[in-house]
Design goal:
Layout (H helix, E strand, L loop, with lengths): L3 E10 L12 E2 L3 E10 L2 E5 L2 E6 L2 E10 L4 H8 L2 E4 L5 E5 L9 E9 L1
Antiparallel strand pairs: 1-2, 1-9, 3-6, 4-5, 7-8
């Protein structure tokens, strides 16, 4: 019976020049599911009453990850929140507001089939 799976989902902070820092990726969690949906350009260039060129390049997309563990450090970083180092019941709570800006990251994983 064929088995397909995904493992070792990681993310890295995307720098302004479009690269990632070497050896700075972080493991997310054991992965239960991953679905990616690209957003494509659909531009047609016409000439001589016909389509002479078509651009279907990827311009963005959405990624849905189903993770088995919830790590507050990773959660707060990916959503742009802050971890509150308060005292008592507020110790290590997550502080968030409407102005939080998540960072641009890249996500990678290893797909497996047997």
């Amino acid at each position: 019976m064929a088995k397909k799976g995904i493992e070792y989902a990681i993310f890295g902070l995307l720098k302004e020049d479009g690269t990632y820092e070497e050896n700075k990726g972080k493991w997310l969690s054991p992965v239960a599911g991953l679905t990616g949906t690209p957003t494509k350009s659909n531009v047609k260039d016409h000439g001589d009453n016909r389509v002479v060129e078509t651009d279907n390049s990827v311009t963005g997309g959405t990624l849905k990850l189903e993770l088995n563990n919830d790590d507050d450090e990773i959660y707060t970083f990916l959503l742009g929140h802050k971890k509150d180092a308060g005292e008592g019941d507020d110790k290590d709570s997550i502080a968030y507001n409407i102005n939080d800006t998540p960072p641009f990251v890249g996500v990678g994983a290893i797909g497996q089939s047997e």
